[in-house]
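Is this the right way to post structure tokens for a design question? Let me know if I should format differently. Anyway, here goes:
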């Protein structure tokens, strides 16, 4: 069985004396790290900090390390970390239920696929783009039914 945790990668110091935050997946004593920055579409948030701004996961946290209050936008970052950990746990649950045999490559593919499917486009943007389409391709409300009746 594999385990997950959100960790601060203290073995690799960044140029500004900070460390990167990563999702650690351990299976059969092998660990692989997935950078949170690469898994998040909102690139304005920085998922890195100094060691004193990080709170390591405790037993009751289920592997969720967190930013301390001293970190800028800690609430938003911690919410995203919680979401990423939950998504990764649901992927692992699928492997545990026997749908697929576990491999790091399959896990990574599912993890990246989850991020791409979560990207949402506002409804107003969709409707305005649909209204601007030429008539035969237009598919909004009753216009499809009217087109069928006129044929």
């Amino acid at each position: 069985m594999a385990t997950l945790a959100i960790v601060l990668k203290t073995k690799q110091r960044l140029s500004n004396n900070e460390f990167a935050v990563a999702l650690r997946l351990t299976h059969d004593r092998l660990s692989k790290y997935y950078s949170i920055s690469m898994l998040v579409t909102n690139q304005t948030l920085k998922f890195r900090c100094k060691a004193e701004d990080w709170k390591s996961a405790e037993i009751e946290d289920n592997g969720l390390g967190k930013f301390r209050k001293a970190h800028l936008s800690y609430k938003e970052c911690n919410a995203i970390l919680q979401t990423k950990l939950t998504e990764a746990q649901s992927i692992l649950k699928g492997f545990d239920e026997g749908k697929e045999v576990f491999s790091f490559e399959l896990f990574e593919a599912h993890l990246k696929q989850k991020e791409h499917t979560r990207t949402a486009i506002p409804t107003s943007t969709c409707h305005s783009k649909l209204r601007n389409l030429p008539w035969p391709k237009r598919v909004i409300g009753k216009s499809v039914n009217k087109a069928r009746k006129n044929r």
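Format looks fine. Someone answered above. Worth noting: Residues 122-151 form one domain. The CA atoms of residues 27 and 121 lie 36 Å apart.
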